[in-house]
Every structure is written in C-alpha cells, then in structure tokens.
Amino acid sequence: IAGITQAPTSQILAAGRRMTLRCTQDMRHNAMYWYRQDLGLGLRLIHYSNTAGTTGKGEVPDGYSVSRANTDDFPLTLASAVPSQTSVYFCASSPARGNEQFFGPGTRLTVL
Amino acid sequence: GEDVEQSLFLSVREGDSSVINCTYTDSSSTYLYWYKQEPGAGLQLLTYIFSNMDMKQDQRLTVLLNKKDKHLSLRIADTQTGDSAIYFCAASGGGADGLTFGKGTHLIIQP
User: Fold this and answer.
1) What average pLDDT does range A6-29 have in this prediction?
2) Contact residues on chain B for A45, CB-CB shorter than 8 A
3) A14 CA: distance to closest CA in chain B (Å)
4) Bridge-partner residues for B20, per DSSP?
C-alpha cells in the first residue's frame, strides 16, 4: 500500500452500536488526525496524535475515542453511535505537526 | 486560536481566471496551504507557500500572500471544467493540532 488507507469505505449503523473506523499510513509520518466533514461546516478536527503513544482532543471530540499504539495505525471508535455522528470521516497524516497533511479517501458513515 | 475564513462559493466562466481568497488570523503561521477536494474524494494538496514568500507560481496556479493583511489567494488561470471542486485554505497557526482549515470554497464552472 502507499499513502493512507481507510476502512470501511461506507457503513450504515444502528444507533447505539459500537463502531471502529480504521486508518493506516505507510509513510512513517509522526502525526495523524481524524476529521469529520459536514455540509456547511467544513472540516472539523475530532482527535489528533502528534506521535505514537500520544493523543489529543480536537474541536469536536465528544462521543469519539482514539488510540495510537504504533506509528502506522490510528483507529477512531464511536462507543455508542448517535444519528448526529452521520458524516464523512477523513483520516490524515503529516510528517510533523504544522506540516502539510495527506488525506485518506474517507469513510461515509450513516447512523440510523 | 487560529481562524481561517473563505467565501463559500465562486462561479466563473470556463476559460476565465478564478481567484479564491482566504484570510487568517495568526500572524505566526509558518506555512499556508491550498487543498482541492473533488466530489466523493479526500483532500489533495495543491500547493503551499512559506510565510516569507509573497508569491508562488506552479503552472496554472498562482498563490499570493499578503502577510501584513493576513490574506492568501489562489489564482487558477484558464479555468477548466476539471477544476470544479471545493478548495480549502489551511494555515499552520498555533495549537497542538497543527493546521487550521477554512470551510472551503465551492468553485463552479459555467460553460
């Protein structure tokens, strides 16, 4: 693989279910990010990680959790999905904080 | 923290130049970026400019930076239908999360 991959591509989920969105990069980038994109609201940062083993909260972290056990993977978990979490989710990585970010293709999530 | 503003829509005729504008608030922003998002896809880095530069040109793209006014623009010469997309401005202002994105400008191409 080259770049950033996300899985699944799309998912329909019942409210209350737990869901993990996967993100993997093979560029050995230190920093990784999760955004959600909603019409009229642009990109909003959910969580980030500046290096393996550390994570931080972004603008809209409630209802989401992340982990960064290694450099390559940065999964995003919705512990109990709600309809307001219906969105397109993008994972991104960068060599370091403040550098250009490279984006994955996105996961379209619908919570019913 | 950093705030990045863009107009939401821009409509241009095919063959004309498009100018997409962006303002930011943090004067310490080191890098400023332009991303392009085509329908159903992720964001693709188009170009960037370092804060000590005034202009950067790359084929049909010209980036202008007015650091005094904290104003960034992206000019696309000879706009084509393939340029139809959402364009995001981003600034590497302060904060632990690295980049702050504008809400994106929808570029609409009229025949």
Assistant:
1) 97
2) 97
3) 23
4) B74
CB B25 within 8 A of CB B88: no
A14 touches chain B (CB under 8 A): no
**pLDDT at B1 > cutoff 80:** no
Q: Among B35, B45, B92, whose Cβ lies nearest the Cβ of A98?
A: B92
- Residues A43, B88: C-beta atoms closer than 8 Å: yes
CB pairs under 8 A between A and B: 59
Closest by CA to B104, choosing from B5, B33, B13, is B5
> Is residue A17's pLDDT more than 80?
yes
Residues of chain A neighbouring B97 (CB-CB closer than 8 A): 33, 45, 48, 56, 58, 97
Q: Which residues of B8-42 are buried (b: 16+ CB within 10 A; e: fewer)?
A: eebebeeeeebebbbbbebeebebbbbbbbeeeeb
Look at A96 and B47; give whichever has higher pLDDT.
Answer: B47
Distances (CA, A) of A74 to A79, B36, B50, B56: 16, 24, 29, 34
Say what the pLDDT of residue B97 is. Answer: 64
Q: Which residue of A has its CA nearest to B5?
A: A42
Confidence of residue A1 (pLDDT cuts 50, 70, 90): low
Which range has the worst mean pLDDT, A84-93, B50-59, B76-85?
Answer: B50-59
Q: Which chain B residues are closer than 8 Å to A98 by Cβ?
A: 30-31, 92, 98-99
Rounded Cα distance, B80 and B17, in Å:
9
